[in-house]
Write a structure and sequence with these properties.
2 strands, globular
């Protein structure tokens, strides 16, 4: 960060203009680099497996189970869940990953142990948002599973392994359609309260410059953007399962960028554009093409 002096007509310093860099994009790029490194490590751990078919089948089964549990955790029904309901979901997740045979792969054994630790920790809590805890755990584990799935898809495309197939107890395409519609309602909510428009095409320089102050005055801004972040991640997962890789990546990028977006009291024009407006516009273009 640096500042520039602003002079009046008598060439006396009248004000200081502070230039603040938006470093959150750098954090996002660094995160993407880490993911590529992790994918390489996963590739090196899968290639030596003699029974890739069994590993693929078990991974697909566990991933499908976790997706179903995540779907349940953020459904309308979940509004009436209590601590015991979320504990039951996490216990089911741990049971599913524990019974799966992953050929003693170290990364998977670590995931089992970490899930058990998180489950024990959540059980000790007397209060708190158990939905957030549950969704956070399931999302992180599904993300790790999907890193393995992506590697298996590459191997399959090159004739080095079986095809990955999922089995979900709901219509994936209809679920995606419904969730995108729900996400659009949340997006419009932010647009109306913060930017005073309903569509991105109606944005202008004045509305964008006033947006950070409007966001600070909007009490629900952080909670709604957090909800958008979690739901866009699930949409990304489901689009991946349905085979729409490009749109899946667009929703995943939105989710990741929102994680790194400052809270409403620290928002800038740049952070709103880079972490909310631009990724959503990219999604809208993707929806037109799909």
């Amino acid at each position: 960060d640096f500042h520039v002096p602003l002079y009046n007509k008598e060439e006396i310093i009248d004000r200081l203009m502070f230039i603040v860099d938006d470093v959150t994009n750098e954090e996002f790029i660094r995160h993407q680099t880490e993911l590529k490194s992790q994918s390489y490590d996963i590739m090196m751990s899968i290639l030596p497996l003699e029974t890739k078919g069994d590993f693929t089948k078990n991974l697909s089964s566990v991933t499908s189970s976790f997706l179903n549990l995540l779907e349940k955790s953020i459904s309308l029904e979940a509004d009436y869940f209590n601590k015991d309901d979320y504990i039951k979901i996490l216990e089911e997740a741990y049971h599913d990953i524990s019974k799966a045979n992953f050929n003693n792969m170290k990364a998977m054994e670590v995931l089992k142990e970490q899930l058990q630790e998180r489950l024990i920790y959540v059980k000790t809590l007397d209060e708190g948002d158990f939905q957030i805890q549950t969704v956070d755990i399931l999302t992180k584990w599904i993300h790790s599973f999907f890193q393995h799935v992506e590697v298996l898809k590459i191997l399959h495309q090159n004739g080095l392994g079986p095809k990955v197939e999922f089995s979900l107890p709901f219509d994936v395409n209809q679920s995606v359609k419904n969730k995108i519609e729900d996400l659009d309602r949340l997006k419009i909510n932010i647009l109306e309260y913060v930017f005073l428009v309903r569509n991105f095409k109606d944005l202008d320089a004045e509305k964008i410059s006033n947006a950070p102050k409007k966001a600070q005055l909007y009490e629900q801004f952080d909670s709604i953007t957090d909800l958008i972040q979690r739901r866009s991640k699930l949409i990304s997962f489901l689009l991946f399962v349905s085979g729409d890789q490009k749109l899946s990546e667009a929703y995943s990028e939105l989710s990741e960028l929102l994680i790194h977006m400052p809270s409403k009291n620290k928002l800038t024009q740049a952070s709103l554009l880079n972490h909310f407006v631009n990724p959503f516009k990219k999604i809208e273009e993707g929806l037109k093409d799909s």
